[in-house]
Amino acid sequence: MSWYQPKNLGFAVRNQLGHMGYATRLFGKLCATLAYALKRNVLVRDQIHFLGNYSLPIITVAGLFVGFVFGLQGYYALKRYGSAEALGLLVTLSLVRELGPVVSALLFAGRAGTSLTAEIGLMKAGEQISVMEMMAVDPVQRVLAPRFWAGIFTLPLLAAMFSAMGVIGGWVVGVLMIGVDAGAFWSQIQSGVDIFKDIGNGVVKSFVFGVAVTFIALLQGYNAQATPEGVAKATTRTVVMASLAVLGLDFILTAMMFTI
Q1: Closest Cα to residue 198, out of 152, 160, 249, 148?
Q2: What span, in angstroms and rounded, lies between the C-alpha atoms of 146 and 187?
Q3: Is the pLDDT of residue 205 over 80?
Q4: Is the pLDDT of residue 5 over 60?
Q5: Torsion angles phi and psi, residue 161, rounded to 5
Q6: Does residue 151 register a pLDDT over 80?
Q7: For position 4, what pLDDT does the model report?
Q8: Residue 229 covered by a domain
Q9: Separation of alpha carbons 114 and 194, rounded Å
Q10: What span, in angstroms and rounded, lies between the C-alpha atoms of 219 and 100?
Q11: Into how many domains does the chain fold?
């Protein structure tokens, strides 16, 4: 009950405000490193390979199975209303608007985000960050910036791959297994999916999710205690905070996109 005393409560609030201020300054510093990242594009390329290629198997397999499930569930739902031919449109809109960006971001946080946090945390535990600072090398530019911009660039591509594999999965279940007309499946997609309102909104979401997930992962790794236990706790916080951030931002972005 001592936590509820005004002194302790004020200390907790001040501590959280300090963390928020530090995170805001670090985010602004990372955004200002775009020119450096473009100049040292080899570092960004290596991180894109590390984050993207190693995340691709789980993204493609997950997208395929999500497409399988949506094709099966969507068919029986639409069949009740005599609209089974709209299966392709249902699967595609569900993927490009919501499931593609959201599920890709959650998988990215679990696979690449934890890897970034653990890597930065181990560098801090091994005093590599301190050595860089002693050598007048800015660790934000040299270590964090390439990973930050690589994550922002990678997640929209992974989300697009997830949605594409999901549509293929829906086609396999709906057309090849159940027997929905293939022409109706693809024609409904071509006539019902808008490039800017549907696909464009999905791209914007995946971009925002990429910024949020990558920044949270780097922040937790950079602030991790230089102990094995501290790195483990930072990795856990990355998954929890990134997942909640993705779901919260998804609601905000969806509300904004449907009201504009």
Answers
A1: 160
A2: 42
A3: yes
A4: no
A5: -65, -40
A6: yes
A7: 52
A8: yes
A9: 35
A10: 25
A11: 1
Q: Is 160 exposed, middle or buried (0-12, 13-18, 19+ CB in 10 A)?
A: buried
Q: Which domain does 139 fall in, by range?
A: 20-259
Cα–Cα distances in angstroms (integers) from residue 256 to residues 46, 159, 253, in the given order? 35, 20, 5
Does 10 map to a domain? Answer: no
Instruction: Establish if 9 belongs to a structural domain.
Output: no
In angstroms and rounded to an integer, the radius of gyration of the C-alpha atoms of the chain is: 22
pLDDT band at 227 (very low <50, low <70, confident <90, very high): confident
> What is the token pair recorded at 113?
């985000």
Please state, in angstroms and rounded to a whole number, the distance separating the CA atoms of residues 217 and 176. 41
Q: Report the percentage of the chain scoring pLDDT > 90.
A: 52
Provide the pLDDT for residue 64: 95
Q: Measure the CA–CA gap between 123 and 119, rounded to whole angstroms.
A: 6
In a domain, 137, yes or no: yes
142-170: average pLDDT = 93
